[in-house]
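Explain this fold:

***
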Amino acid sequence: MNINAVKLRKSILIFTLLSAILVLGDCKKESIEGSYDNRTLGTSAKDLLSSSHYTALQIEIQYMPGYEPDDASINNLKAFLNRSINKPGGIRVIKEPIPAGSLPVMSLYNVVSLERSWRLDFTRGDVISVYILITNSYYTEADVLATAYWNTAFCLFGGAIDDNAGQTAVTRSVLMTTLLEHEFGHLMGLVDLGSPMQTDHKDSENGAHCNNPDCLMYYNVEAGITEALQSIPSLDANCLADLRANGGK
C-alpha cells in the first residue's frame, strides 16, 4: 500500500462491551476503562508532563521478531520527551522481544489481550510507566499504522509500517520515530485530549489533531513525512504551549 494513499477518517464514536473507542483517523485514539494504566486516553497527560506525582518515566517496548525499533528511533524519542516533560528522575527505555503473533490482522481486543499477557511494568511509586507494543500485523483497517488506546499504552502495527517504509525515500527509522513521537503526543494530551488548548488549534474534522500541516500532531503526519522525505516533524508553538500549561517544559 502506498502511504500517499493513506487517508484519515473523520472521528466516529463506537461503543462495545469492553470499551469506548474514539476513532480519529490514521492513528486511532481508543480508550478503555480500568486500573491506573488502563484509563481513558489523555487522563494521565499531566502526570506524564509534570513531576507533581511521578518524578521518573519508564517506557517498556515489547516487539515481535523483525520489528525491534532501532537505536536512532529510541534516542530520538528520548530527546523528544526530554524536551517536553519534567522528569528529574530520568527516562528509562526497556526493549523486550515477545513471540511472533499468529494473526495477520489484529483488532483492539487482540492488542489488549497481548498487553495483558505480556506487559511487565506498571505505574507505581514515583515512576509512571508507558507500554508500547510493536506487532508483526496489520490493524483491522489496513491503513492504520498506530493506535493509542489507554492513558499509558499504544501500539504500532509492523505490517502497515513495512508497507509504508522503504517504498519512497522515507526510512523505517524516520517513520518509526514519527509514529512513536506522534502517539506519545496523544498520551501527553494533544490535541485537547487532556492538555487544554491555550489557543484554538484543533482540527475540527479530524479530532485530537493539530490544524497545522507542518506540526507533528497533524492528522496525516505519516503521509506528510513520506512526502517530505527528510525530516521528522516537530510540535508547533500551539502544541508546545498546551504542554507547558499542563506541567510540561
